[in-house]
Amino acid sequence: MRRRLLGVAVGLALADSAIVTLALPEILGQFDVAITSVAWVLTSFNLVLAAVAVPAAYVSRRRPRDAFVVGVLVFAAASLTCGLAPSFEVLVAARCVQALGAALIVTAALHLLSQVEGSDERALRVWVAAGVIGAALGPAAGGILTQLLGWESIFLAQVPVALVLLLAVRGVDTRPVPVPAGRPLRAPRATPPARAAPARGRSTPSRAAA
Predict the structure, then answer these.
(1) pLDDT band at 176, cuts 50/70/90?
(2) Can you give the pTM of this predicted structure?
(3) Which residues have CB under 8 Å from 158's CB, separation 6+?
(4) Domain span at residue 11?
(5) Residue 193 belongs to some domain of the structure
C-alpha cells in the first residue's frame, strides 16, 4: 500500500509537467494574454522543477519524511491556488510554487521507496516506472478534465489526491543521513614511500684521479 501511494505521488508530481498542454487554448480564452505568454503556464513549472531539483534532493536525503510532507502540502496549496487563480500572473506564480512542491515529492519519494523496498534497485525501478506513467498520462488526463469540467478542475482535482498521499508516510521513521549530499568523504592521504636506506658496507665509488 505504501509503495503504491509513493508511486502515485511521483506520477502525480511529474504529470503536471505536461498536464495543462491541452488546456492552454481555454486558459488563453479566459485571460487576456498573448499566445506566446500562455505557454508560461507550462514552461514555468518545468523550469522551476529543473532548477530546484538538486537543492530538493539535498534536503530530501537528509530528511525524506519531512521533505515529502512539506512537498505534498506545498503542492496541494499551490494546486488550489492555480484552480482559483483570479489572474494570469497568479496562475503562473502558483505553478512555480507547485513545481517546488513537486521537486520535494519526487526526490523524497525515492528515498522512502528505498526504505520500503529494502533495495535501492527495486526502489529505482518503481520510481522510474511511476514517473514515466505519470508524464505519459498527464496530457490525456488534463484534456479529459478540461472537456468535462473546465481547465480549473485539473488543479482542483489534485488537491484531495495529494492530501491522501500523506498516508504513505504515516508511521515512517527515517533517520537523516549524517554526510551532506554532494560532499563525498575525503580519502585519506597516501603516505609517500620511504626511501630505501643504503646498505651497510657498500662504499660509493670514488672519482678516478685525473
Answers:
(1) low
(2) 0.80
(3) 12, 16, 75, 76, 79
(4) 2-169
(5) no
